[in-house]
Design a protein that fits this description.
By secondary structure, the protein is α/β, with parallel strands linked by helices. It has eleven helices and five strands; from the N terminus they run αββαααβαββαααααα.
Length: 347
């Protein structure tokens, strides 16, 4: 009875031992077998120009990106069928190659690009093998707008962008080296970068000054003195010309002012003459009435006439009218004197 119980237990132990040995042999064979070679070609800054020829599909990824890890198996399957589809498949690690991510201006991960004879297009579909296969077989890439002009990865603008991204990547690696490997605090690392930036700016300014001094050739001392001596007489001549011009302007302004004053005086005199002529015209009837009254009155004695004449002459000499007014007054006086003279002989 006891032997019958020991028989199944011994068989179970033997079976477990056989399975363990077989599993160990399987693991040993898998470890000894070389890993399957990936058909996805890693692209770097040194060999990225290969995509300028033929047809390519590129994948930009990061090791820490979960979405990128989910599409790894699909991308490997797509690469295995690359010979059938007559297409090359590559991948770019943005951590190791920040310059290429800047050249293609990658802002999201994962990012896929199609290249056909140097013309690039962005593939925005899912990273699934069936969709990728249909994108190539049905040539859906022809309906996508290509990256041309300054957006093209081969343009000069994107080359500059690649340089900026590569510099930022190197600074990031250096910062990690300070903080992780050496254990330097983060603020110390930032302070080091600030000081380095200031020193680099001063150095570049010094280089520019040296370059400008090398290209600038100063004149010899004798030539410079001679040129200064030649310039001084020219400056004096120019100043004299400017003074002459200013004097001429002042003279012309003075003459214009004088002419304007003379014109104003002439206008005033003309207005005075017109007013005196109007007064004479108004006084004309009064003078005729006086002459009639003189004709009716008896003739005064001769001495009275002489006194009146001298008084009129004195009034004329004190009044001193303007030339046009004096002519009118003189005419009226001559008329009176001729009338008195006619009356004298008749008496």
């Amino acid at each position: 009875m006891a032997g019958w119980r020991r028989g199944p237990l011994f068989a179970a132990l033997l079976t477990a031992w056989v399975l363990a040995v077989a599993e160990a042999e399987t693991h040993r064979e898998q470890a000894a077998r070389p890993p399957e070679r990936s058909l996805v070609r890693p692209m770097t800054a040194s060999n990225w120009t290969l995509v300028m020829e033929g047809e390519w599909m590129l994948k930009f990824y990061a090791p820490w990106c979960p979405s990128c890890q989910q599409t790894d198996s699909e991308w490997e399957t797509f690469a295995k069928n690359g010979e059938i589809l007559q297409i090359s498949v590559g991948k770019v690690d943005v951590i190791q190659e920040p310059g290429l991510s800047g050249r293609f201006f990658v802002t999201t991960l994962p990012a896929f690009f199609h290249a056909k004879d140097g013309i690039f297009r962005r593939y925005r579909g899912p990273g699934v093998y069936e969709d990728l296969q249909n994108y190539i077989l049905e040539k859906k890439w022809q309906a996508v707008e290509p990256l041309t002009g300054w957006k093209s990865p081969a343009s000069l603008t994107m080359s500059g962008m690649a340089g900026l991204f590569s510099i930022s990547g190197k600074i990031w690696h250096l910062h990690n080296y300070f903080t992780v490997t050496l254990g330097v605090p983060a603020w110390c690392s930032y302070f080091i970068f600030v000081i380095a930036t200031l020193i680099f700016g001063l150095f570049m300014g010094l280089v520019l000054v040296v370059i400008s001094e090398c290209f600038y050739l100063p004149l010899p001392r004798n030539l410079s003195e001679h040129s200064e001596q030649n310039l001084r007489p020219e400056e004096v001549h120019l100043t004299e010309q400017l003074q002459d011009v200013e004097e001429e302007k002042d003279d012309s302004n003075e003459e214009e002012n004088k002419d304007s004053l003379v014109d104003d005086e002439d206008e005033k005199e003309d207005l005075g003459y017109e007013e005196e002529a109007e007064e004479d015209e108004e006084d004309g009837p009064a003078v005729g009435a006086d002459e009639k009254s003189d004709a009716q009155d008896p003739e005064p004695p001769r001495e009275a006439r002489e006194d009146e004449g001298s008084a009129e002459v004195g009034d004329d000499s004190l009044a001193q009218p303007h030339p046009a007014g004096t002519e009118a007054v003189g005419d009226s006086l001559r008329q009176r004197r001729s009338q008195h003279a006619d009356k004298g002989p008749s008496a």
